[in-house]
Recover the amino acids of this structure.
């Protein structure tokens, strides 16, 4: 297996002494994190889940695990947006991902124009008229942004 896509640089050599010096700090951070999680979880489980989700989202973005990050966005869309009725969580995560990935462009991760973008834009514009015939304004906006705008940002 090649290490070219790995987070470990080839110039670094890890030995037991390096790991042994990091163990007390790691142990302290784990204990502090568990204590903080117990305090937040005792206060409000929803806040604890939100903090845990933000930490997981941040780690996945930092490690450039793009497929897992998109899976997390889909899970948030299904369980938070759809099941609990909080209609905007996944779209905010998508826009945050686009902003983060736009700012983190490099030679390894260039910003490329998606193929057939004009077709997606035509679909989004054509979908405005049927979406306006919803039951209410909330239903219209929810349908349009979930179906069309969400799929465009994932594309």
């Amino acid at each position: 297996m090649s290490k070219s896509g790995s987070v470990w640089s080839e110039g670094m050599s890890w030995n037991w002494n390096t790991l042994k010096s990091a163990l007390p700090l790691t142990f302290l951070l784990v204990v502090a994190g568990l204590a903080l999680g117990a305090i937040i979880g005792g206060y409000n489980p929803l806040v604890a889940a939100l903090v845990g989700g933000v930490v997981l989202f941040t780690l996945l973005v930092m490690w450039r695990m793009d497929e897992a990050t998109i899976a997390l966005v889909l899970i948030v869309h299904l369980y938070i947006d759809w099941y609990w009725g909080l209609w905007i969580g996944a779209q905010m995560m998508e826009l945050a991902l686009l902003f983060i990935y736009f700012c983190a462009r490099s030679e390894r991760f260039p910003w490329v124009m998606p193929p057939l973008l004009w077709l997606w834009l035509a679909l989004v514009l054509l979908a405005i008229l049927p979406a306006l015939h919803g039951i209410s304004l909330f239903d219209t906006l929810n349908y349009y942004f979930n179906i069309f705008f969400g799929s465009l940002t994932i594309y």
Observations:
- Residues 85 and 91 are 13 Å apart (CA to CA).
- Confidence is low (pLDDT under 50) at residues 1-9.
